[in-house]
Design a protein that fits this description.
binds flavin-adenine dinucleotide; about 475 residues
Length: about 475
């Protein structure tokens, strides 16, 4: 995703671009074939939930509007979140339209987005896509700061270039490649503490379905597990359940019947797995081993490497449940494109500008997801009876409390939505003592869980002893 979006932006800015893609599979004939049969072993997450935040949609709208149009033509849907602002005493009308103009999420399966991007790339002048080309290392010129001058591939020889973009995703080997060049590319890393299970359904009659509480999303973090649903393109919906990696009692969620029984036990999810209202169109996809990793292209404010920029998941991964990865991947492409245009002649200034901007955008979101994750993981561990872990870092406002306050204050609702959708930095809500004080004065309604882990266990037939764990 990062490679193709960045490649399209660069080609349109007048550069010649070669995209090397390890996956050699041919482009499927249409989006349904893409969803059903496009084997992407190197990108297993394409079979998972497609929560595209407003930042992703905004980058597409301003940089690749034809891609956005093509997605809408192929059944993707936009959800202007202004229509979801709760009616509160201050009233939604009091909210300045400029604050909600971009607050639009995109409902689209990941396979649909990838299919549309591949087609646009194939038609894009100055862009050459080489499927089946695996990068195995970098070529570089030594110096005080090593300068990358190309890449080596498994079966396509060496390729010299003035700039290398590493968009090879969460399994990038950039650490090893940079170490070979004498630079290193260290980072921070911790586990996300969840295993996700996703199944897609097609809705029989969308007009008969309940409205999701936040545009195309229902997001429920429960006492010991989580439940989500995202509306996507062409009346499809992704239903997602997530458990703690040590919660073996929920490991059978991979079985469709167990998955459906458990999802049906969460009232807001139940209509989306009701066989009279939806039909399953995929198996249950499972993904664990999820990690939040942040790499730092700068050391003491100076670039570690010249002529190479890591973007998308190669730069940072976050817990997928926040839906931030696609937005960051696309925004990174924009930063690289603008940075190369602003500093065309100096690799050093290019690297400084781009690395600073990539880090400034990404690090706050990465830190934010990690601290919210630590809070959620300690809650889940307590429910499971596991030993306590370190307490989460301090913040002025936990996400569920801020979200609950939004139900009674439209201004806070918009602030939270803008931060969650990455149009504003997370600190604008979660590290804002004055806002925290205001939220306390509001006395938001108490937090309630529409279901608990024990309800899921009961629904899937776990013995009572396990349910009370
Ligand atoms: C389970 C799950 C659910 C997610 N859900 C969401 C969500 O709802 N919303 C959201 O915003 N984000 C979500 N994400 C995150 C999102 O998928 C990633 O942030 C996004 O895919 C990053 O794009 P990328 O291009 O950097 O990496 P990828 O999409 O992984 O693409 C990397 C590409 O590089 C290719 N490649 C790898 N190695 C090489 C090599 N050596 N040579 C050549 N090519 C190579 C791969 O084949 C692949 O095409 C989810 C992630 C997971 C794991």
């Amino acid at each position: 995703m990062a490679g193709l979006t960045c490649g399209l932006m660069l080609a349109r800015a007048g550069r010649r671009v070669t995209v090397l893609e390890r996956d050699g599979a041919a482009l499927p004939g249409d989006i349904d074939e893409a969803a059903a049969d496009w084997a992407r072993p190197t990108v297993p997450q394409v079979q998972h939930a497609p929560g595209f935040m407003a930042l992703a949609r905004s980058v597409l709208a301003r940089r690749l509007p034809d891609v956005l149009d093509d997605l809408l033509t192929h059944g993707a849907r936009e959800f202007p979140l202004r229509e979801w602002i709760p009616s509160t005493p201050a009233g939604a009308d009091a909210i300045d339209r400029a604050r909600t103009d971009e607050l639009i999420s995109l409902g689209c399966r990941r396979t649909t987005l990838e299919w549309v991007l591949r087609r646009c790339a194939a038609a894009q002048p100055r862009l050459t896509l080489v499927p089946g080309a695996t990068v195995t290392g970098l070529m570089w010129r030594s110096g005080p700061v090593p300068r990358v001058i190309g890449v080596r591939t498994r079966a396509h020889g060496a390729l010299r270039t003035d700039v290398v973009i590493d968009a090879s995703g969460r399994r990038t080997e950039v650490d090893r490649w940079a170490t070979d060049a004498g630079a290193g590319f260290p980072g921070w890393d911790e586990h996300c503490g969840l295993v996700v299970y996703t199944r897609f359904y097609r809705v029989r009659d969308m007009s008969a379905m309940p409205r999701m509480p936040r545009g195309n999303a229902t997001v429920l973090v429960l006492d010991g597990c989580a439940a989500y649903a995202f509306l996507a393109d062409n009346d499809t919906v992704a239903v997602v359940l997530a458990r703690h990696p040590q919660d073996d009692d929920l490991a059978d969620l991979r079985c469709p019947a167990v998955f459906e029984a458990a999802a049906a036990a969460v009232p807001p999810l139940a209509p989306w797995v009701d066989p009279t209202r939806t039909e399953p169109i995929s198996p249950v996809a499972v993904m664990g081993g999820l990690r939040a990793t942040m790499r730092f292209p700068l050391r003491d404010g100076r670039p570690r490497l010249l002529g190479m920029h890591a973007i998308g998941d190669a730069l940072a991964t976050t817990n997928p449940a926040y839906g931030r990865g696609a937005s960051l991947a696309m925004a990174h492409g924009e930063i690289v494109t603008d940075g190369l245009a602003a500093e065309p002649d100096s690799p050093l200034r290019q690297a400084e500008l781009i690395s600073h901007r990539l880090t400034a955008l990404t690090l706050p979101h990465w830190l934010d997801t990690v601290r919210h994750d630590r809070g959620r993981i300690s809650l889940w561990r307590a429910t499971l009876g596991l030993p306590r872990t370190a307490p989460p870092p301090r913040m002025s406002m936990p996400m569920p409390v801020a979200a609950a306050a939004g139900a009674v204050d439209a201004d806070i609702w918009v602030r939270v939505a803008r931060a969650v959708h990455m149009l504003d930095p997370p600190q604008s809500v979660f590290d804002h003592p004055a806002l925290a004080a205001r939220i306390c004065d509001l006395d938001p309604p108490p937090l309630t869980w529409p279901a608990r882990r024990a309800d899921l266990l009961a629904a899937i037939g776990a013995p009572p002893a396990l349910r009370s764990a």
